[in-house]
Design goal:
Layout: E1 8-9, E2 12-13, H1 16-32, H2 38-45, H3 50-62, E3 66-67, E4 77-78
Antiparallel strand pairs: 1-2, 3-4
Helix pairs in contact: 1-3, 2-3
């Protein structure tokens, strides 16, 4: 019997929970133009643990699917997202 393998996005292995959070971040950016807060992600995914949600979000940064700055609110964004410089 073959073991179940986690889904892939951009060649990166992710758990189903990480994949869900990635899609939430991506859709939030497309809809609003800025990153979601941890509370926004918790509300959309239905999770109750703030620390666990934060850990999953920053794991996406660690594996290279998202970019973000620690201790800066709403700084997380998908790497595939193109941001235009309006200057």
């Amino acid at each position: 019997m073959l073991a179940k393998r986690p889904p892939y996005i951009c060649g990166k292995t992710m758990t189903p929970a990480q994949k869900e959070i990635y899609h939430v971040i991506e859709e939030f950016w497309i809809k609003f133009g800025f990153g979601p807060s941890i509370d926004d992600v918790m509300y959309i995914t239905g999770e109750t643990g703030r620390g666990n949600t934060s850990r999953k979000m920053w794991h996406l940064v660690k594996i290279g699917l998202c970019k973000g700055t620690k201790n800066k609110a709403r700084s997380i964004r998908p790497c595939s997202l193109r941001i235009r410089n309006l200057e």
